[in-house]
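Recap quiz, item 2
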Amino acid sequence: MLGKLMKYEWKSVYKMGSILLLAMFAVTVLGCMVFQMPWMRDLFADDSNVDEVQAIIFAFVMMVSFLVYIFMLMGVTYGIMIFLGVNFFKTMYTDQGYLTNTLPVKPHQLLNSKILVSGFWYLLIEIGVIISVVALIFAFGGGVAGAVDGYSFGDAMAMLWDEMAMALQSEFGDYMIHFGVVMLIMLLISPFTTMIILFSALTIGQLSKKHKALMGILTYFGLCMVTGIIASVVQMIYSIRLSINTFQNPEAISEMDMLGIYDYTLVINVVMAAVLYYVSHRILTQKLNLE
Amino acid sequence: MNELVEIVGLTKSYNANNVAVNNVTLTLPKGKIIGLLGPNGSGKTTLIKMMNGLLTPTSGSIKINGRFVGVETKARVAYLPDRTYLGGNQKISEIFDYFEDFYEDFSREKAMEMLQSLNIDPSQKMKTLSKGTKEKVQLILVMSRNADLYILDEPIAGVDPAARDYILRTIVTNYNPEATVLISTHLIEDVEQVLDEVIFMKYGQLVLYTSVDMIREKHGKSVDAYFREVFAC
């Protein structure tokens, strides 16, 4: 039954998800085109003949374009989240919930189908955002590199890569692979934990007698705040402990100790998601009260 | 064993002053058409929602075919709620696919036959249909299942008399004779002709559970007339 539930969940999500991905693609292409325009080279070229007024106008256009781009990325990221939350709420707890909750399926199958499909779409959007940002960096690099004498696009990218590698090397030393793996796991897991937190909040909101949707939204912000506080407290404790250790025995501190904070953040997210999944399942099996 | 539904000490209270269903104990047999009758706010819909697992009882229990409400009972209960539960963007044919995927007892053939008899195009989207047609589509979905228990909450409310006749005819001619049909309504006169038994509910409590013949023999009245007497304000 999980496969069938996922099939219909996919049908209800893929249109909006595709529209948002296309919108992001379009804005990225536009952004890349802006960076490739001739005036971009003129602005950064060594022998630039751009006067002050033109430079201000170009800078203003760039700033506006950058802001539009940032708002667009935020719009897509929050847009998909709002859409997925509304879709979950509508199909589970409004009139459509009368059909969903009378299907001969187990509550965990319902939850899993929604978390997996929504999480996957959120992951796609996240990957889309990363690709978009990288594409713009490349386009900017290419545009500027072309303007500077003796520099090719390849040179600019190689410099950028070297800078990044040096920064990571100085921060994490021999544990760069560990850092990469943790970041990759976080990237892959966080869309699903985000969906679990969102759906759990909307489910917990059902316990309220009135204004269930509003209570769900407030619960979501509450849960985000709690997760943030827990993460901050753990980070603080970790940092204090690290500082004490550094003070007592500086040689004993390795990059791995610095890296531990990311491991803890990952564990906190996973534990929080597991607890909230359990709570949601319990509400669906023992506290469901559709109006 | 002829019992299909066993309800014991069922209570649903929202707070101390709002008890929607109050300590109802009831056993429903197989193979009957039963009217669940009562004025607005008598607890009919609350009882039905608990039977379908949409509301959690405060206390008491419900068993259908010997099983507590859950996945197994949902597979054997065909439920028509008092609202449109289908998404507006779905085509009727897509909804048939959905039912076919989730309910083993759903007959697409039967559903298509009923749809054709009403001249409804299966490629139409739900949002393009009138309220009455939406209700008919939902009824078709429910009655195209070969379920053990059909629970119909206000199936004829809000539709014209011609549609009412069609709906009642559909119920009577399409349900599995081994199954039980529970119809909740306050339009008693319209459904009386098809009922075998009636349940009267008032203020969340069970007032009466008897056969239609018994009411006619004992009280010399139609169910509608007797209902008006019992629930006179």
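Residues 174-291 of chain A form one domain.
Chain A touches chain B through 22 residues (CB under 8 Å).
End of item.
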